[in-house]
Structure formats: structure tokens, C-alpha cells
Amino acid sequence: MRTAAFTFIELLVVVAIIGVLAVVAFANIGNMRLYSQRTASLSNMRQIGVAFFTYAGENEMRLPRRVTDTNSTGKWPRLLADYLGDVRVYASVGSPDNYLARNADPLSDAVNNTSYIMNGYNDLGAFTNDAVEVRVNHLDRPGQVILLGTPRSGSTHFYMDLLEGENGNHEDVLDLTHYGDGANYLFADGSARFLTTDTYRTEMWLVDKTFAVP
After folding, report:
1. For 162-175, what is each residue's pLDDT tens digit?
2. What is the DSSP string of 155-194?
3. What is the value of pTM for the model shown?
4. How many CB atoms are closer than 10 A to CB 86?
């Protein structure tokens, strides 16, 4: 009596199935790693959000100003550092060029070495006027106003300015796909949320909702 054996075709089918399962498994591992990094960075953003509001609480509810003088001290990473338990939250998790990987100074006032870019209040004229201030308790819809986003790799911008650059910072500097199909954002109500490129809106950077984006 002959024992049944796999034919060559059956072996090819089995190998093909194993190959497909392996590809699916590796894809899922990659997606899980990206999700884990994204979640860890959201936690970091929330901690920075606490620093924003603690700073505001000690300064008559004023958020850090947009500093236009490139030689001045007191850019937002340094201002908030005293309110953070660990400045390593300034490094975006999973980014190969974050300040930890580059051994750069996250508190530099000359170039932004953090993984985040702050709202420059461009619609209020802060790009040319250091006196412009934003108070948390004066924002009508804080859950719709972005405080921090993620700049593209290599950017040294501290502030996201709608009108700066050929197309505006929101197109020239901002990284909308930092975690695949979207990026993390910190909002003026203290929440940190992941927005896909489909749900992100440039208008979320507006403090004055009557301002028209050119």
C-alpha cells in the first residue's frame, strides 16, 4: 500500500501560502510598531501641553509668545523646559533624526532641535510683532486650535507661519505624514490627537477664525 505524498504543485501552493502569511505578519508588525510610536509621541505631546498650561497659569493665562528676534533668548522649548519633568519628551518617538539621535541641544534658541513646531499666531500678526499675545481663556474654540505640529525632517523652524515661504509654512515645513497616513497635533484645550491627512485642516492653525487663508 502506497502512502500519500505531496505533489510538486501542492508543495508550491503550501510555500506560496506561507509566503503570503509571512508578508501579512511582517506588515502587521510594522503597523503595530508605527502605532506604538505614534501613541508614545501623543503621550509626550500631552506632557508638553501640561507645560504650556502650567506656564500660562503663572503668566495670567498667556501662552508663550512668538519671538521674532533671532538673537533673543526664550524660544518656546526653553520657556517650557522648567515645567517638564524630562525634556526627552521633545524627541518624537521613532524619528531617526530626533535631537537624541543627533546629540543636539533641545533648548537651543538659535535653531529648533525639538521634533515639534509651535503655532506662530501668524493670523494675529505675530510674525512681525513680538507684542502679540494669546491667552488660553480668550480662545473661543481651543479644541480646534493647534498649538504644536511636526515639522519635516531637517527643518529648524520654531514656529508654524501660514504666510511664510513660497506656499506658506503649512505646505513648505509641516510634516503631514509623520506616522504614515497622518501626524500628531497638540491642541489649545490640552488634547493631543492623531489626524489623518484627510481630517487635517490648515484652518486649525488659526487663532482668529475670521482670518482667511490666502
Report:
1. 877 766 677 788 99
2. ---SEE-TTSSSS-HHHHTB-TTTTSSEEEEEETTS-EEE
3. 0.83
4. 9
